[in-house]
């Protein structure tokens, strides 16, 4: 499935499920993404964009959160850039009124742009993965904002793909 098709399908599912699952709030976040492990050998720090929808508590005090994300990593050596389109669902729990945690599986599509014998080449792969993170709610004027750090691990047969997004967002 192409990246546009995957993103369109995930966006439609996000909005469809958000309405039926009594979405409590949606969020938009931006930040930095730092590659770790094997990924740091071919990619540098980059940009993180994330759209989130959180339901009311559904499993006791736990809510569900749907994420649609996009990471852009600048390239190193022969790689021009690496991008990751992410769609994930996680369980989210509050620790008091200020701190929360989230963890869950996802579907990720990676594209690495490089050159072979002077010719531009794009290598596209899809992976299942998982993410886990913690965040803190912070007031931003009259809106509710948050600062969040996550760890993302893609399950790959070869070199490991791990990155850490640090994002600031506003709940809409």
Description:
The protein has one helix spanning 3-20, and strands at residues 23-36, 43-55, 63-75, 81-95, 99-116, 119-140, 143-154, 161-171. It contains one helix and eight strands, in the order H-E-E-E-E-E-E-E-E. It has an eight-stranded antiparallel β-barrel. The protein starts with a helix and ends with a strand.
SSE topology:
Blueprint: H1 3-20, E1 23-36, E2 43-55, E3 63-75, E4 81-95, E5 99-116, E6 119-140, E7 143-154, E8 161-171
Antiparallel strand pairs: 1-2, 1-8, 2-3, 3-4, 4-5, 5-6, 6-7, 7-8
Mean pLDDT equals 86
Helices and strands, in N-to-C order? HEEEEEEEE
Q: How large a portion of the residues is in β-strands, by DSSP E?
A: over 45%
End-to-end separation in angstroms reads 30 Å
What is the global morphology? elongated
Structural class: mainly beta
Major sheet summary line: 8 strands, antiparallel, barrel
Radius of gyration: 17 Å
Total of helices: 1
Q: What is the tally of beta strands?
A: 8
- Helical residue percent? 10-25%
Question: How do the strands line up in the largest sheet?
Answer: 1-2-3-4-5-6-7-8
Low-confidence stretches: none
């Amino acid at each position: 499935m192409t990246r546009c098709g995957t993103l369109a399908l995930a966006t439609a599912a996000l909005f469809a499920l958000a309405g039926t699952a009594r979405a409590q709030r949606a969020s938009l976040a931006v930040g930095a993404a730092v590659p770790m492990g094997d990924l740091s050998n071919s990619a540098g720090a980059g940009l993180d964009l994330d759209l989130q929808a959180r339901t009311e508590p559904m499993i006791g005090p736990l809510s569900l959160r749907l994420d649609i994300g996009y990471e852009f990593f600048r390239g190193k050596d022969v790689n021009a850039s690496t991008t990751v389109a992410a769609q994930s669902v996680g369980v989210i729990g509050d620790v008091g009124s200020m701190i929360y945690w989230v963890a869950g599986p996802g579907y990720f599509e990676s594209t690495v742009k490089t050159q072979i014998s002077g010719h531009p080449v794009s290598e596209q792969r899809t992976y299942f993965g998982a993410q886990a993170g913690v965040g803190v709610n912070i007031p931003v004027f009259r809106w509710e904002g948050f600062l969040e750090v996550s760890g993302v691990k893609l399950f790959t047969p070869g070199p490991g793909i791990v990155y850490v997004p640090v994002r600031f967002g506003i709940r809409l």
